[in-house]
Amino acid sequence: MIDLLKKGILTGIGIGLMTKEKVQEFAKKTAEEAKLTKEEGRKFADELLKQSEETKQQIEEKINNEVKKVVDKLGVATHEDLKKIQKQLDKLQSSLSKKTKK
User: Fold this and answer.
1) What mean pLDDT do residues 27-47 have?
2) What 3-state DSSP class applies to 11?
3) Which of 23, 25, 53, 101 is most exposed, with the fewest beta carbons within 10 Å of its own?
4) Are 18 and 27 spatial neighbours (Cβ–Cβ below 8 Å)?
5) Which long-range contacts does 55-60 make (Cβ < 8 Å, 24+ apart)?
């Protein structure tokens, strides 16, 4: 029964969007309803928290990848691009300063 519950809960991204407190609250309520022992309930809560964190990381990674694709597609300069340009400007300014001093 617990495996069926876990599979149902972990399907989709819903668990990844829950806060730690909400996951713990949900796990406690579910464990009570399923009449799990305290140990089974604790394990269930720990597994839900672990899966929640993993799902959050996966969602964040996917969002970052999609944003990067859009930025690349639009041709918008990234922070890294601006750093490179700033370095080049600094070199040019330094070079000009040396030439004007001579």
Assistant:
1) 81
2) coil
3) 101
4) no
5) 55/10, 55/13, 55/15, 55/16, 56/16, 56/17, 58/16, 59/13, 59/16, 59/17
pLDDT-derived band of residue 15, with 50, 70 and 90 as boundaries? Answer: low
Domain count for the chain: 1
Quote the mean pLDDT of the chain: 80
Amino acid at 16: G
Name the token pair of 38.
Answer: 């305290």
Q: How far apart are CA 9 and CA 16, in angstroms?
A: 10
Write out the residue range of the structural domain in which residue 77 sits. Answer: 2-101
Helix residue ranges per DSSP H, 1-102: 2-10, 20-33, 38-74, 79-101
